[in-house]
Write a structure and sequence with these properties.
- This protein has 567 residues and is an alpha/beta fold.
- The chain folds into 3 domains: 161 residues, 3-Layer(aba) Sandwich (Rossmann fold), CATH 3.40.50.10490; 165 residues, Rossmann fold (3-Layer(aba) Sandwich); 173 residues, Glucose-6-phosphate isomerase like protein, domain 1 (Rossmann fold), CATH 3.40.50.10490.
- 42% of the residues lie in helices and 15% in strands.
- A 6-stranded mixed beta sheet has the order 1-2-11-10-8-9, sandwiched between helices.
- Strand 1 and strand 2 form a beta hairpin.
- Helix 1 packs across helix 11 and helix 4 packs parallel to helix 9.
Length: 567
């Protein structure tokens, strides 16, 4: 039976306890897409790594970035080595693992720690993906350096933030031991500058990952599986579940029965009118959409097109949601909360929905591979290259220029940019009103917080999000800088020009020098924020920059109050 022939819902796999997809009036076009794919032998071409799935001619980062399609099989032989290494770390009494990385090098590891936790006797994992000096100082205070292992994680081996963080903690560790390298592990591609650095400084271990897998598709490589092994997760079980999704894309499975292709067809076709992909999760899975956000935004956010992943948005009433939404609910069996009733109301309001049931947490392996296939497949519908990131470099270049200018001026001046201060409420109120007045139906608002990411700050930012949603009835998203530059940053600059960006910066009371360089973390994060602002402006984006000064908590409260009185 064709799973799309049910009058109301699609039961993917034919099982009501797995995935239930409601497409409403968009069902016919998804059916047509799957029929077209079946005629084209889409699955066969995808598994054969045929570039014509996306473009008639071979293109860089397609022909050499499809190794992820084989990971559920080829990584099996690596698991024993990962577990042996993890066992040695555990037996040595390491209490904490700190991963220094950005984007694809860190997000899967963070999901695994938050979802599985660390098994008894295994170290807990912290991810440091901020260059804010307060975040670095906070991490230093959380761990006993003498019992900490640092994972320096970068595919290119040149990631500025990662290497800056490494240099800082290398110096700190060098003050405690004459063998600091024993506390460091590199995860990188073969023959990168990071690999050479690790060899020169006698790192404890260097893991060389698959060079034919891009960063956001690397969750099932060394970048995700080594940290997972260190915290005691069952990586065999995780990869076995990924293999289920892998087998579902085999030649023998018809395109209209392959769950990942049904999802991909829905994503691609709905993106033409329902481009706000909104995630709702049960409590145990609430970190997984952070990984999905990068996969979707960086893969399908370019050439003026895109899908906007909406993660962690406070729930609103039905009338506050625009008609540009596609809701996805990830539900873990045994978690509190029932989502069927909410999804039913969304369906009645005309919103497409997808309900995904996970039997246990290790079904994440299956979902990781399923979504990778789905997103890559959706890119073929939209005519988008899913594996490059053409608009990421601009902000990096502008940040580097800002740092050079700062050095040349010896810190005496800053780049002239239009910014408003919480210390000048009248001017700020006018700027906010003018900025928000530009919002139109189908737009989205993003809070870009170049701040110390902590619970209190996130709580206030979430209140601002729900206020904006209720005020304008348009989608809201949020990200901490520079972390989001390695995920949604591509979408912000290369996707459709439907975003309004609120950039929030502060003036940290603490600063930390970056050893082996002539700049500090405060200099770095300021330059990154400035480079991002300038890149958005160059692309004609609607952006407002606000300086919260040194009192971030007080500044955010004042900003929230101003937002509530916009009228």
């Amino acid at each position: 039976m064709n799973p799309l022939k049910d009058k109301r819902h699609t039961f993917i796999h034919g099982k009501k306890d797995r995935q239930i997809l409601f497409l409403g009036k968009d069902k016919d076009q998804v059916e047509e897409r799957l029929a077209s794919w079946k005629e084209q032998k889409f699955s066969q071409k995808l598994r054969a790594k045929d570039h014509t799935v996306w473009f008639p001619e071979p293109k860089p980062e397609i022909t050499d970035r499809l190794g992820w399609l084989e990971l559920p099989e080829v990584m099996q032989e690596r698991l024993e080595a990962f577990e042996t290494f993890a066992r040695g770390v555990k037996e040595e009494g390491v209490s904490r693992v700190v991963l220094l990385g950005m984007g694809g090098s860190s997000l899967a590891s963070e999901v695994f720690q938050k979802t599985f936790g660390n098994a008894p006797g295994h170290p807990g994992l912290f991810v440091l993906d901020s260059t804010h000096p307060s975040a670095i100082r906070s991490m230093e205070e959380k761990v006993d350096l003498s019992r900490t292992l640092f994972l320096v994680s970068s595919k290119s081996g040149t990631t500025l933030e990662t290497l800056s963080l490494f240099r800082y903690f290398w110096k700190e560790m060098s003050s405690l031991t004459d063998k600091p390298g024993h506390h460091f592990v590199a995860i990188t591609d073969p023959e990168t500058p990071l690999m050479k650095l690790a060899q020169d400084r006698d790192f404890r271990m260097v893991f060389q990952s698959n060079p034919d897998v891009g960063g956001r598709y690397s969750a099932l490589t060394d970048f995700g599986l080594v940290p997972a092994a260190l915290i005691g997760a069952d990586i065999h079980r995780l990869l076995d579940r990924a293999r289920i999704a892998y087998e579902n894309t085999a030649f023998s499975v018809s395109e209209d029965k392959a769950s990942s292709l049904i999802l991909g067809a829905a994503l691609g076709e709905l993106a033409k009118s329902r481009d706000k992909l909104t995630f709702v999760t049960s409590p145990s899975l609430d970190s997984f959409p952070d990984w999905l956000e990068q996969l979707i935004a960086e893969s399908i956010g370019k050439d003026g097109k895109g899908i906007i992943p909406v993660v962690g948005e406070p729930q609103a009433s039905m009338e506050e949601y625009g008609k540009d939404r596609f809701f996805v609910c990830l539900s873990l069996e045994g978690d509190s909360g029932r989502y069927e009733e909410k999804l039913k109301k969304l369906e009645e309001a005309g919103h497409p929905t997808l309900l995904i049931y996970l039997k246990d947490k290790y079904d994440l392996g299956q979902e990781i591979f399923r979504w990778e296939v789905a997103v890559a497949s959706a890119g073929s519908i939209l005519g988008i290259h899913p594996f490059n990131q053409p608009d990421v470099q601009l902000a990096k270049d502008l940040a580097r220029n800002a740092m050079e200018r700062k050095k040349d001026s010896q810190g005496k001046s800053d780049d002239a940019v239009e910014a408003f201060s919480v210390d000048e409420p009248e001017g700020l109120a006018g700027a906010l009103k003018n900025w928000i007045a530009q919002a139109q139906g189908g737009d989205y608002i993003t809070l870009q917080a170049y701040l110390f990411p902590n619970v209190d700050t996130t709580e206030v930012l979430q209140k601002i999000r729900i206020g904006l949603l209720k005020h304008k009835q348009i989608t809201t998203t949020m990200g901490y800088g520079p972390r989001f530059l390695h995920s949604t940053g591509q979408l912000h600059k290369g996707g459709p020009n439907i975003g309004l960006f609120l950039q929030l910066v502060d003036e940290p009371s603490v600063d930390l020098s970056i050893p082996e360089t002539d700049y500090s973390f405060n200099t770095l994060i300021k330059a990154q924020a400035l480079g991002d602002y300038q890149a958005l402006k160059q692309r004609g984006r609607r952006v407002l920059r606000i300086n919260l000064k040194s009192d971030v908590s007080g500044g955010l409260d004042r900003l929230k109050d101003l937002m509530e009185n916009l009228g």
